[in-house]
Amino acid sequence: MSASTPKRNSFFGGAGILTAGIIIVKLIGALYKIPLGNILTDAAFSDFNNAYNIYSLLIVISTGGLPVALSKMVSEANALSRRNQVHKVFNLALAAFCVLGTISFCVMAFFPQQLADAMRDSQAAYSILALAPAVFFICPMSAMRGYFQGHALMTPTAVSQIIEALCKLVVGLALAAAFQKSMKDDAMAAAGAILGVSVGCLLGAVYMYFCYRSHRRSLPRSNDEPEDSRDILATLAKLAIPITLSSSVIALTNILDTGILLGQLQDALGMTEELARETKGVYDKAMTLYNLPASFMVPLTASVIPHVSAALKVKRRRQGAQISETALRTTALLAIPAGVGLFVLGEPIIQLLYPTTDVVEGGWMLSVLGVASISVCFMLVCNSILQAYQIVTLPMVTTIIGSALKLVVAYFLIGNPDVGIRGGAISTVVCFWLIALLDLLIIKRTLPRSLSLGRVFIKPGIAAAAMGASAWAVNGLMTKALLALKVFVTETEELLPDGSAVLDLSRTGVALSVFGAIGVAVIVYFALIVVTKAISKEDLALLPKGDKIARILRVD
Question: Which pTM does this prediction carry?
Answer without folding.
Answer: 0.80
